[in-house]
Amino acid sequence: MPDAQIKEKVKKLLDKYDLEGLLKMGCPKDEYDPEARQITILILGRYTLPDKNVTEKNICEIVANVFNKQFGETGAHKQTDKKIVSLAKELKKWEKDSNRGKDVQ
Questions:
Q1: Do 32 and 14 touch, CB atoms closer than 8 A?
Q2: What stretches of 18-102 show up as alpha helix (H) in DSSP?
Q3: 84-104 in b/e burial notation, b at 16+ Cβ within 10 A?
Q4: For residue 59, which of 73, 44, 75 has the smallest C-alpha distance?
Q5: pTM of the prediction?
Q6: Cα angle: 55, vertex 83, 25; to 5 degrees
Q7: Of 4, 33, 56, 105, which is least packed with CB atoms within 10 Å of its CB?
């Protein structure tokens, strides 16, 4: 599956869960583009490491870290936040359904 499709799915999920509430406040639709790009790069980086699968926990960690870094709220987003966990589960399910070739547990 092309990396662009993964980024597109990550972006859709970021928009859906709107972790910062920015879309709800009326910010532009491209508000989470930089975060989608960073998260995609980090997730794909996990695939290049020998014997590494991306787990839901990895995705939660990546999303929380990117949002904390981007929005300057260190620790504001926890890996266990309900929205982040739901986003990770949806991404894992999508990747499995898309036959990515690697399990994203």
A1: yes
A2: 33-48, 56-71, 82-97
A3: bbebbebbbebbeeeebeeeb
A4: 44
A5: 0.83
A6: 140
A7: 4
CA angle (99, 15, 43) in 5-degree steps: 45
Q: What is the pLDDT of residues 18-68, one digit of tens each?
A: 999 999 999 999 999 999 999 999 988 866 655 567 889 999 999 999 999
Dihedral angle sign, alpha carbons of residues 77, 53, 6, 43 = positive
Q: From CA 32, how far away is CA 14, in angstroms rounded?
A: 7
Report CA Rg, the chain.
Answer: 13
The one-letter code for the residue type at 21 is G
CA angle 27, 87, 38 (to 5 degrees): 65
Which residue bears the tokens 């406040």? 25
CATH code for residues 3-97: 1.10.340
Residue 105 contacts residue 88 (beta carbons within 8 Å): no
